[in-house]
Amino acid sequence: MSRPEFQLIDWIRGQIRDRAPVTLGIGDDAACLRPPVDREMLVAIDMLMEGVHFTFPPATPQLAGRKALAVNLSDIAAMAGRPTAAFVSVALPKSRGMDFAKEVHAGLIELANEHNVIVAGGDTNSWNGPLVISVTVVGEPLGLHPVCREGARPGDWLFVTGALGGSLPSGRHLTFPPRLGEVEQLASCVDLHAMLDISDGLAADLHHLLNAGRVGALIEADQIPLTETAIYAADGKAPLMHGLSDGEDFELLFAVSPDDGRLLLSDWRNNTPVHKIGEISEVLGARIRYSDGRIEPLPPLGWTHSLGSGQ
Amino acid sequence: MSRPEFQLIDWIRGQIRDRAPVTLGIGDDAACLRPPVDREMLVAIDMLMEGVHFTFPPATPQLAGRKALAVNLSDIAAMAGRPTAAFVSVALPKSRGMDFAKEVHAGLIELANEHNVIVAGGDTNSWNGPLVISVTVVGEPLGLHPVCREGARPGDWLFVTGALGGSLPSGRHLTFPPRLGEVEQLASCVDLHAMLDISDGLAADLHHLLNAGRVGALIEADQIPLTETAIYAADGKAPLMHGLSDGEDFELLFAVSPDDGRLLLSDWRNNTPVHKIGEISEVLGARIRYSDGRIEPLPPLGWTHSLGSGQ
User: Fold this and answer.
1) In whole angstroms, what is the distance from residue A82 CA to residue A142 CA?
2) Residue B309 confidence class, pLDDT cut points 50, 70, 90
3) Nearest chain B Cα to A9, which residue?
4) Alpha helices in chain B (DSSP H)
5) Who's near B139: CB < 8 A, 6+ residues apart?
6) A229-260 pLDDT tens trace
7) A149, B196: Cβ pair inside 8 Å?
8) Residues in B 34-53 with any Cβ partner in A closer than 8 A
9) A83: contact with B, CB 8 A cutoff
10) B10, B29, B67, B92: which to substitute to probe chain A, counting the most A Cβ within 10 Å?
11) A203 in reach of chain B (CB within 8 A)
């Protein structure tokens, strides 16, 4: 390892607060964590590549680092979990120098600190290629067990957090807040039957949830919450199609019992709204009901970006 | 995510045996592990890039995948640990297609199966760049606590496993066996005071161990075990220099009490030899004694490849 890389590692180490449950942080061959007692451990991993998951501009080095952590925090939120530690491996473009490397890590560490996540280890490399960041996040379930993609039952109500569509043109895919606080509140007031984060687009990820649970769903077209970017997009694609098929929303899609659903509709207090978008059916497959009453099959659509994002 | 990538993930999933302690493997937003009881958890992470840590040829896709896991297993061995699960993120070159992607994973999974490591999660991406693989390995200490870089005491004897030098020209950096079995045997018969795996070269990594423990060492030049590649290298560099400064040996360097050292010299039975190469001193810094009795300072030398390898 070259001197500049040791300097970078020392700098990163200086930014980190070593705290429980990390008993040995950056600087040895591996990190040590004190695992949760009587709980399973969650592990999420995601790799982002320059030119694929972000480009400079509009991304800055800070936002690239931030996004690399945020997509993993979103995965932990989607399991109804609390993240504890992050591990960061990077391939840094040699031409961009040390300040660039620090900015990437600064963006990541700032978000980590917001959520009490400790950067406990990493691997710093440089090359003549573009920036690549791979982040692994370790966490634990908020309840006794994590909430999986499977588990939705016929009759369950389907909800999404926030609003959908237009994440790429609006830049939200770089700045989105992982729904960790929201899921903590949800897990404390309702029994989450099944959940995932919407990264491939609502229609595609709905199919993932339905396939995992071997159930179907009927979605209400006029109940899908849309972002302003989706509503005012002047690209010839209908706002609803943006909401159904745009990728990288990083909102939560989840199923709860009708009783819990009613509770959410009446009592949910949070800056992030939750919207009921449909119901789980015994009939397999996804269907969508338009405002004129027409019901049609809803194909996975999805962001078939041929690039893949996530486990 | 595109169809080919879902197919690849299905194929990978078919290669994996889902076993305890993995309670939820590939296919959800995060994996779930049952953590060790009353033990800390170890986490190692390493990223390998085509053109930096391997090139095609002499590497094959299988060997690249194998190495990406092996360097992490070596890190876990260096903590006196047992690996349990691996998480793999890849940036696959689009031009090379699905067979290439399968071969990378097949090489990795074959080594994982050899060591009872479960591939429990991953992130599969493709792009127009070269192959990048980042692997995170989770494990647990063999004893109650891991063995760190710090902990060497004045008077301790220093040992290395195997032989050093010439790993890159010999191709051993692609095929080396992580010293997991050796460390299990070591941990069962001696008290390991400090340990690391030699990735930057003996001299450089010796300095890491000495700096961590705030001690010094005197190394015996004629006791350093050299590979045949180091001995017969016809590149104008002395065999000893290869042993001291070549990178990517992935052998273990460790310190034990003189009593335990004597035990190893008399009783060690394993296909992999261990050699005493020197002793820990109170005097700071590393020194080397040549066969003619001369003692000189031993600088870090090391494989200043400006590329970095590992935590």
Assistant:
1) 6
2) very low
3) B311
4) 3-15, 61-78, 97-114, 167-170, 172-175, 180-189, 202-213, 228-231, 239-245, 258-267
5) A30, B41, B42, B43, B44, B76, B79, B81, B82, B83, B84
6) 999 998 999 999 999 999 999 999 999 999 99
7) no
8) 34-36, 39-47, 49, 51-52
9) no
10) B29
11) no
DSSP conformation class of B197? E
Query: Where in chain B are the domains?
Result: 3-141, 157-297
The answer to whether B288 and B296 are in contact (CB under 8 A) is yes
Contact B288/B295 with Cβ under 8 angstroms? Answer: yes
* CATH tag, B3-141: 3.30.1330.10
pTM: 0.93
Determine whether domain B157-297 maps to CATH 3.90.650.10: yes
| Chain A residues within an 8 Å CB radius of B91 | 47, 49, 132
A311 touches chain B (CB under 8 A): yes
Three-state SS sequence of A266-302 = HHCCCCCCEEEEEEEECCCEEEEECCCCCEEECCCCC
Going by pLDDT thresholds of 50, 70 and 90, the confidence category of residue A14 is confident
The predicted complex's ipTM stands at 0.92
